[in-house]
Amino acid sequence: MDLDRIIVRNLVKKYRRFVLKVEYAEFKRGLNLVVGSNGSGKTTLLKMIAGFAWPNNGSIEIIVDGLKYSPREAMKLIGYVAEDVIFPNIKVRELLESFTLDKQVLRELVDELKLTDHLDKKYMELSAGLRKRVQIIIALLKKPKILLLDEPFSNLDILIIPVVKDILQKLKHETIIVVTSHIGLEIDVDTITILDQGRLLYHGEPSALKPKTILEAEVEGKKS
């Protein structure tokens, strides 16, 4: 029985006038998609799972290989891709090599994500899309038990998006993957979580999702 999972209970995070509330969510091994418009709380949720932000109330419990961790304790198990991650402005080759001694794996990822021609450029000289590729490679080099990807497809070259999707599909049998997006994605996922203005509208299998129910919840939210 696979016990690896992230369990979110009665989570509340307040930031100025924004309040994120997630009563219960469980992310297991597989591909877990969190969707919602900009400002819905997706990034905040991922930051708390990654250990870079703290809830005002509630808990996040991470279970890997039968051991329980807090997000801070689990950092060594997590690969994290986020818009606001800052890396030293050194050559891409030097940056990537600082995260691994396995040059074969690094070479394969660089080839797969088509970064070979950019290795001698400095990180901040790259376009947003190329920096995103570097961030994805760094996250994968950790061989993480948990992979958190905040808007991983934004700014990516249209030819690279299928490559990243294929990588995620290959990893999902052995990794807890949580991907956020402000748009629907054509990708096979195991669970979907829908956030709207800090409210949890749905969490579960895509096959059980009822569009009419979600629409009614959105309308009700606008009335309140």
Automatic annotation (TrEMBL):
Residues 1-222 form the ABC transporter domain. InterPro entries: AAA+_ATPase, ABC_transporter-like_ATP-bd, ABC_Transporter_VariousFunc, P-loop_NTPase. Transmembrane segments: none annotated. Signal peptide: none annotated. GO terms for molecular function: ATP binding; ATP hydrolysis activity. Keywords: ATP-binding, Nucleotide-binding, Transport. It holds the Pfam family ABC_tran. This is ABC transporter related. It comes from Staphylothermus marinus (strain ATCC 43588 / DSM 3639 / JCM 9404 / F1).
